[in-house]
Here is the input.
Amino acid sequence: MNEKRSPAGNSRRPLLIVAWAWVGVPFAYGVFQLAQTVTKLFGG
Here is the structure.
């Protein structure tokens, strides 16, 4: 198990962070809105 990372792998890190944020932030906002709606509907 002698794995070597290429220098190109480190250059993609900012792209991965932006991509995950692009998906994660709206998803988290949607979950937050869903939680608020559910508490209104079920009187929590």
